[in-house]
Design goal:
alpha/beta; Rossmann fold; Alpha-Beta Plaits; 4 domains; 4-stranded parallel beta sheet; 20 helices; 42% helix; globular
């Protein structure tokens, strides 16, 4: 099978629209990690993503009859732009079905490139189903974003370039994974020519479909997919991509939102370019691998796969990058409600800087503070801080890994609910973000239970995030999940969350 793909990669036609991107040394990362770190700059493609390679290679090989019929695909961004620019080059009519949540910058670029953008549904799966309906009705040719041999071969040209650009030994190549088109093409080519080089997939912990398949030994579907790294938000690895990956990928590393944000900052520091969350996956995985294995003096390549990021998302990314770099800890602490307590708290921090401090008077006995604290950028920094604080304070809680604390509670600290608020349950929601979405969410939630707390913050992402308190009688608690399942939005029960209990409950 791999031999068949080698020939397809070597014969792939991508350079009518794609460019050979540089393999740049990341000097800052190299010094910090004590390894030679190289970045494959696919963010420098004409549409700021590698996706143009596979899309064009698939479409250039269509028959004249197929080209005359026109093509269709479903995409939330990068593949859509790849299909649009390929269609313009080849004189093919292209219809791209995109979720209504797709950022305007991507929709407008598809239209600028000559593609017909059809907005349908709140999520990719709805757009995909609609695209298949249109394909059947209009006789269009479907261009799959990843699960197609010609698309895989087009993406494999990334590996062909890397091995030509770096003639010396390559110890490991780190590849971002969504549906698997890129890693399948890279793994097939690299393992055939340099079997000693490790090919390591990197996935967001919120959409680790390849790791799921590797762990189980077969393709399975994730129950839930997170959307921060929207470019890789895929619930099931592709069929063709899995056939290659299962035998040629050495391992899969998963990374958190904070680790992705830190990697975006790392790439910016070295290149002065801002990549999208999916584009930074490989660097985030490389850092985790180096820390785990303790390797030094090796040549490591990370594929920077794309730079299609909305400007208004940068605020959220910047906030989370310090946590991802392990330079900041988020803590809650109880201190006596009396003069001098805050000074004692600061003294317990030593020379560390406070990055955030939230407090509101609650009663005359004790106060609970929410604080961000700068720490040493290593694994021991947080443990060292917590140890020192516990020597001086009665109760300290580490909230650094608590998503509810980081997304909501830090902006809501202002005192506990009054005694009149009883039977409160707390849920965290994600819902498609677009004008009017918040009102639609409230309408769906309805007036069945009284809303006792509400926090919403727009992070410039495709999905909005809300923290809601509902007053639900004990006898009705079992009905809540059933009701929320009918609404259809992703939700998490946070009633037992430590940050909620400390500051809001």
């Amino acid at each position: 099978m791999v031999q068949r793909y080698i020939r397809k990669i070597l014969e792939a036609r991508v350079y009518d629209v794609a460019v050979e991107t540089p393999l740049d040394e990341a000097r800052g990362l190299s010094e910090r990690l004590n390894n030679r770190v190289l970045l494959k700059r696919e963010d420098e493609q004409p549409v700021f993503s590698f996706k143009v390679r596979g899309a064009y290679n698939k479409m250039v090989q269509l028959t004249d009859e197929e080209k005359a019929r026109g093509v269709i695909t479903a995409s939330a961004g990068n593949h859509a732009q790849g299909v649009a620019i390929a269609a313009r080059e080849l004189g093919i009519k292209a219809t791209i079905v995109m979720p209504k949540t797709t950022p305007d910058v991507k929709v407008n670029n598809v239209r600028r490139l000559g593609g017909k953008a059809v907005l349908h549904g709140d999520a990719f799966d709805e757009a995909r189903l609609h695209s298949q309906k249109l394909m059947a009705e209009k006789g269009l040719v479907y261009v799959h974003p990843y699960d197609d041999p010609d698309v895989i071969a087009g993406q494999g040209t990334v590996a062909m370039e890397m091995l030509r650009q770096e003639g010396g030994p390559i110890n490991a190549i780190f590849v971002p994974v969504g549906g698997g088109g890129l890693i399948a093409g890279v793994a097939a080519y690299v393992k055939y020519l340099r079997p000693e080089t490790k090919v390591i997939g990197v996935e967001s912990a919120e959409s680790a479909c390849l790791k799921l398949a590797m762990d189980k030994g077969f393709r399975d579907t994730l129950d839930q997919v997170g959307i921060f790294a929207d470019g890789v938000a895929v619930a099931q690895i592709g069929e063709h991509t899995w056939e290659i990956a299962k035998d040629n990928v050495d391992e899969v590393i998963t990374v958190s939102t904070d680790e992705i944000c830190a990697a975006i900052k790392d790439i910016f520091d070295d290149t002065r370019s801002v990549c999208e969350p999916a584009g930074a996956l490989a660097v985030a995985g490389m850092k985790k691998y180096v820390e785990r294995e303790g390797v030094e003096g090796q040549t490591l390549i990370a594929i920077d796969s794309g730079a299609n990021v909305n400007f208004d998302r940068l605020r959220h990314i910047a906030e989370r990058s310090e946590l991802g770099e392990k330079r900041e800890a988020i803590i809650a602490a109880k201190i006596p409600e009396k003069p001098g307590s805050f000074k004692k708290f600061c003294k317990a921090l030593g020379s560390r800087n406070i990055t955030e401090f939230n407090y509101r008077y609650s009663d005359d006995r004790e106060a609970i503070v929410f604080a961000g604290v700068q720490i040493k950028p290593n694994n021991d920094g947080r443990d060292e801080l917590l140890g020192e604080l516990k020597e001086h304070l009665d109760e300290v809680v580490d909230l650094t890994e608590d998503e509810t604390a980081k997304l909501h509670v830090r902006y809501m600290v202002g005192g506990h609910a009054p005694a009149s608020v009883d039977n409160e349950v707390v849920y965290r929601f994600e819902f498609p973000e677009r004008p009017g979405a918040l009102m639609k969410f409230l309408n769906k939630l309805g007036g069945r239970w009284n809303i006792s707390m509400f926090h919403y913050r727009n992070h410039g992402a495709a999905y909005g995030r809300v923290l809601v308190g509902l007053q639900v009688a004990e006898a009705e608690r079992g009905q809540v999940d059933t009701f929320l399942d009918e609404i259809g939005y992703t939700y998490y029960n946070e009633t037992g969350n430590a940050a909620y209990k400390l500051f809001l409950g």
